[in-house]
């Protein structure tokens, strides 16, 4: 009896799935899109509802022929391209090409490429999603309309060789509007005063001028600043108030696509394109010696922070064993996705707690390991207890002037024992406050 056919996008994904499905299925890779709009002309009928004109991509004729031949021999066809709009478009185009064989075409979605999830998905196939396909088609048509109709205008009015795109055109406008705001900005001079102080006990510390005569300190000229310094030279500095409180810093949620791209740039200096390319490989599967090809992370294009119950149970057990009960919350940490999130996929996380970065070091490239390490640490950290700080605020009076110093001492690291968010160039993600001496 002929075997069912499974069609995926990449050869790497095909190898990983073959590892799980063994010899029960025939598996073919489309190697990306098989059909697209023509290169040499617009390919969109503007007069008739913007109907697109698709044709087989050069270089994919042989691949498509192999898929058609295999589909004619197969008793069932499962299209398991990526679970996003692009993957859905590939699925539709393949389905259109093989429909003459009158086979029923099933759609299979893998949020993660593991033995369990692949088996479960194959047992619960779905139908092709027209809404998702048409969303990709609308995007592709817009790409073509903007690129083909606006680019020639740029060549004529600005400079030859420039191109316009559906995304970059809007981005350029945003940049221009921001630049206009910058040029309209009227700078205002301001001064700050900081006192270097020392109590009976070390260490020395610094306090910033906070109020003048109970009003917010606003010093607009150098002359004002010098006048204040002159006043301060003849008055004692006296501790007026000390306030201590415990402050908790909660762990960040697991990665979504945009946050992974941002963090990979800040910590690893990876471009968004490089990050997604490496993540795609980790998702599709990497050769792990005797275990064969294994998918290491869940699908990397997502805007949801949802985590599967079995993944929550696994990571909580890992924290208990690796860090101890002090680091494990009584209940799992749950995070809210943005209102616009589609919730189709989980957050980006490791597929198994068995694959810690140290174990994978011999099998991954340097860049793959670095990105996987980020995803691993962030996922575990999101289910740990908060960090706890002892925060002290000291008000120091000097005549009519009030200075304020703030210090934080880390009492319990919590999730920060494993993961600390990168600080943006001008950000304040991490506390820069130092330790204050014992004062009365």
Q: How would you characterize the largest beta sheet?
A: 6 strands, antiparallel
Order of helices and strands: EHEEEEEHEHEHHHEEEHEHHEEHHHEE
Mean pLDDT across all residues, rounded? Answer: 91
Compute the number of helices: 12
Task: Write down the Rg.
Answer: 30 Å
Per CATH, the class of the largest domain reads Alpha Beta
Poorly predicted segments: 424-431
How many E strands?
Answer: 16
The helix/strand class is alpha+beta
Question: What can you tell me about this protein's structure?
Answer:
Helix 9 (272-284) packs across helix 12. This protein is 37% helix and 17% strand. Strands 9, 10, 11, 12, 15 and 16 form a six-stranded antiparallel beta sheet that branches. Strands 2-1-7-8 form a four-stranded parallel beta sheet, with helices on both faces. Strands 3-6 form a two-stranded antiparallel ribbon. It is flat and about 95 Å long. The N and C termini lie far apart (87 Å). The chain has three domains: 5-136, Rossmann fold (3-Layer(aba) Sandwich), CATH 3.40.50.140; 194-250 and 386-417, Topoisomerase I, domain 3, CATH 2.70.20.10; 257-381, Topoisomerase I, domain 4, CATH 1.10.290.10. It is an alpha+beta fold and 440 residues long. Strand 9 and strand 10 form a beta hairpin.
